[in-house]
Design goal:
The protein is an alpha/beta fold. Helix content is 36%, strand content 25%. The longest helix is centred in the last third of the chain and has 19 residues.
Length: 158
């Protein structure tokens, strides 16, 4: 199965999780690509009219994983811009995760996942799972658990 992992990561934390997913899924025999979202024109902070540089084409993937950090208690604006600009996810099964630094429930993880899921479903995707990684001392266990969970979801949907 061909799997695309589409991530936005400013600090490297979200990309680190994507790499762990890629390692596990590749070891299971899947063909996996990680694609990093970047803004066109060297912008660092997105605006409402931001354009993604070389936006990943999702047509060649059987499954898609989206990963992004939580910014300002919400989904990263770069991921939001990308997902909004995708014309359709019809027929795609996706899983989504976010990374965040603050451990409290009210600090945006659930909101970011809900936003990501809502946009994907509005584009006719089937969201088969979600996850939140809190970047604290327990992060490695959280990452291991997420990798196992997502691997199972990918294989179940096979």
């Amino acid at each position: 199965m061909k799997i695309g992992i589409i991530v936005h990561s400013r600090t490297g934390h979200t990309h680190f999780v994507a790499q762990r997913l890629e390692e596990k899924l590749s070891a299971e025999g899947h063909e996996v690509d990680i694609q990093q979202l970047r803004l066109a024109g060297g912008q660092d902070v997105p605006g409402k009219d931001s354009i993604i540089q070389n936006p990943p084409d999702l047509n060649g993937y059987d499954k898609v994983i989206f990963g992004a950090p939580v910014h300002a208690f919400s989904l990263s604006k770069v991921m939001e811009a990308y997902l909004t600009q995708v014309s359709s996810l019809t027929g795609k099964t996706v899983v989504c995760f976010v990374t965040k630094g603050l451990p409290f429930g009210w600090t945006g993880g659930n909101r970011a996942i809900s936003e990501m899921k809502e946009i994907c479903e509005s584009k006719w995707a089937t969201v088969s799972g979600t996850g939140i990684i809190i970047w604290n001392k327990n992060r490695q266990k959280q990452i291991d658990d997420l990798v196992e969970k997502f691997s199972g979801l990918i294989d179940l949907d096979g």
